[in-house]
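In full, the data:

***
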Amino acid sequence: MNTRPVLYGEDDENDVFLVQRAFKNAGIENPLKVARTTDEAIEYMRSAGRGQNPIPGLILLDLNLPRTSGCEVLKWIRQQPRLGRVPVLIFTSSAREEDVEKGYELGANAYLVKPSDPEKLFEMVRVLKDFWLVQNRGPQWVRG
């Protein structure tokens, strides 16, 4: 089981609250680290694995982050040798086909549209837990 932190790039406080609650309801024990801007996300990952922060086992990334887009963060992640294999899921409200295409083009492992209904969000997080944090086998350094 992947026990590393989950890095969540999200600036909307309501979404952060709902996802934190969904993690708790799903029994996810991985620490949820929240980055509210692209700068915070990149700073967390720059220090990851260098004594300050553990490398995340999973990254959830909203496309609509302040400063630059979440796509820029994804592009940056995929250029980093230490982070290039960490699963990144686009976790956003945009269902635009061009956003989906760009996310996969830049190396996203999945593209999830956040449901507006909290119960549907909780179900999505339960499925996310089972697949990405329990069933999925990543490299040892990603699993924890």
User: Anything to note?
Assistant: Residues 118-135 form the longest helix (18 residues). Strands lie at 6-9, 32-35, 58-61, 88-92, 110-113. Helices lie at 13-26, 38-47, 70-78, 97-105, 118-135, 140-143. The chain has one domain: 6-135.
